[in-house]
Amino acid sequence: MSNGAPFTLHIFVANGDPDGLRLVERSNWIGKAIMFPRALYPQVRGRPEFQQIGVYLLLGPREEGDGETMYIGEGDPVRPRLEDHYAKKDFWTRAVFFIAGPGHLNKADVQYLEAQLVNKARAAKRTPLDNGNKPSEPTISERDRAAMDVFLDNILGMLPVLGIHAFEQTSLKAGESQGAVLTCQGRGVTATGVDTPKGFVVQGGSFCSKDETPSLRDHFPSISELRADILKSGVLVLDGDKFRFTQDYTFSSPSLASAVVLGRSSNGRTDWKDASGRTLKEIQETQAASY
Question: What is residue 2's predicted lDDT score, i.e. its pLDDT?
């Protein structure tokens, strides 16, 4: 995704409303992002950016459970595709599309970007896609592929800053400094994980309770729905009388991670512990006191 180099975003709020039309440019990059809420589309579709070729994301709430659904597409230009989705797709409430200066993108380029974004979203398994089919990757030259990979990396680096985390797939590489490996145990299962800047990552190979307590379903249905979602996506698979994580998976908080693992409500700051038995809360308190 991002190579970790610092960068600057310039966000122009075109109509003075922070939730309205925003034009976002990244330092030392030819591309530009245009973000807008669906309700504003009739007022902004006449802008020249909508007449350019680009790749776009549509986002809106899931029909069931918390979180969002996403659609990924491309247009040459973008406006006719958005016109069609405005008329026919009900789920989306906001959109963002990426364009470049004249002559920098062609049809094959944005088809390549679309295919790569779909592949990465499906690999991350964080947001369900409304795309019915997997787009085919066009044949492009080695030079153009290299250029589009740089363009894609810039897009992926910007999206989390813009509040879109669907493509983030945290992989904890051996030897990397990611903080202490923590363990969560209970209800016959053991999971390991690490608290990272992107969220709490449960490591692949960890186990998860197959059963849920009635109180989880009654009082925290969104956690129960998340367990069902990641089981459906293949992040969890049945392994004997337990579920097993097939990959590293990022949760928004330690408590959400431990609640999914244990199948019950949980305070992740006390249920995740290091090899010495210190809770995450105690570790953080010690870190805070050292400054």
Answer: 45
